[in-house]
Amino acid sequence: MCDPVGFMIYSGMLMTLYISLINRNYFVLCIGFFLCTFIAAFRGEAGIDTYLYIARFNAIEPGFSGFYNIPIIESFLPFLMWITKTLGGSFIHFSILFGAIISLLYFRILKNIPNSIYFGLACFPVIYIDSLFNGVRIGLAYPLIFLAIFYSSSSLFTLGIFSHISALIAAPFKIFSNKNFFIFIMLTISFLIIFDSEIAQLFLQRFDSKFNQYQNIYTRNAYGGIADSSLLYVASLIFLRSKNLNGKSFLMTAAPLLIGVVFLHIFLVSQYVFMLRVVRFLDIIFFALASQSSRDFDKLSFYLSLSFGVLYSLNFLRQIASSCNYDLNNGFLPLIHNLL
Q1: Which helix (H) or strand (E) holds 146?
Q2: Above pLDDT 90, what percent of the chain?
Q3: Pair 171, 157: CB distance under 8 Å
Q4: DSSP string, 187-204
Q5: Does any domain span residue 143?
Q6: Rounded to whole angstroms, how far apart are CA atoms 224 and 227?
Q7: More confidently predicted of 329 and 280
Q8: CA–CA gap between residue 140 and residue 93 (Å, rounded)
Q9: How many domains does the chain have?
Q10: Tell me: the pLDDT tens digits for 183-240?
Q11: Which helix H or strand E contains 314, and what residues bound it?
Q12: How confident is the model at residue 339 (pLDDT cuts 50, 70, 90)?
């Protein structure tokens, strides 16, 4: 283990969030949000990708000149950086702003949507903490897409796309009515034609660069992404329960579903790094769809999500413990001296 103190801090953050969810204590949840945001803001350069976020922040020009240089694709995060820098803030202030926004979004989900408890117990603490430390660019898209699906909101969906382009995968899932979805597709195609497909080329270049970059950086094996593939299966089971599938019908559907997830993992998730993002978005989507159910509290879903959540968190802590494989300021463990 590289940093026992950092490991204990991550464990403490996870435990605080889980205790608040199990007891439905939103005061403790707010304490957890504050704690996680504070530690993330003062993490220094800790984090596998933190140096990239700092470099991006430093490259932002304040004022009107910087505003016009904000990229079209995935512009929400650079926009928040631009606001922070224009107001004279540092990367620490940006981290606090980001943490506050993402915390408010998750607070709305967990407090106002009763059936979101299954999402909360199964994966929320891990996804939330990871979003603050190592998945800043995509982290804002997760709660936006959850809310977009739950409320069938095209505006939240659009914000999700501007946070991370992978959020486009949520388009077919109850965000648009059939008529509006058709109009959306036609307007998008027309827009691309009018601008001589320049934006389409930007999308393709973005995908190609990220695909090749991630494939070259991360070594893939049969176990790569197995945690999120397993989460997809759990999310699918909870979705089935929300549709009142019980007893024999539930078991008969669960078996072929497991086979499908296994094949998805073997042939796609374990082979291509970008599929990890796709699968995690699918996890979010299925939990959001399950949250729309009017079904009362389901014990099986509760214990299933709680049991898996423990394993999911332990796997997260295992990754933290082995993060010194990355020679970047102790991986993504927080730099304790920045808090002292």
Answers
A1: helix 141-150
A2: 53
A3: yes
A4: HHHHHHHHTTTHHHHHHH
A5: no
A6: 8
A7: 280
A8: 17
A9: 1
A10: 666 666 566 555 555 555 655 555 555 555 555 555 555 667 899 999 999 999 999 9
A11: helix 299-321
A12: very low
The whole domain housing 74 covers 4-137+217-338
Rg, the chain, Cα only: 20
Task: Give pairs for 112-117: CB < 8 Å, separation 24+.
Answer: 113/150, 113/291, 114/291, 114/297, 115/242, 115/290, 115/291, 115/292, 115/293, 115/295, 116/146, 116/287, 116/291, 117/21, 117/24, 117/302, 117/305
Measure the CA–CA gap between 61 and 73, rounded to whole angstroms: 18
| Structure-token pair, residue 319 | 């990754």
In 3D space, the residue among 154, 129, 190, 149 whose CA is nearest the CA of residue 332 turns out to be: 129
172 versus 39: the higher-pLDDT residue is: 39
Categorise residue 118: left if φ over 0, alpha if ψ from -120 to 50, beta otherwise.
alpha
Residue 298 located in a structural domain: yes
What are the Cα distances from residue 101, in Å, to 43, 136, 227, 271, 325?
Answer: 18, 12, 27, 34, 31
Is 318 within 8 Å of 227 (Cβ atoms)? no
CA distance 258 to 337: 46
Residue at 123 is within a domain? yes
Whether 28 is in a domain gets the answer: yes
pLDDT at 144: 96
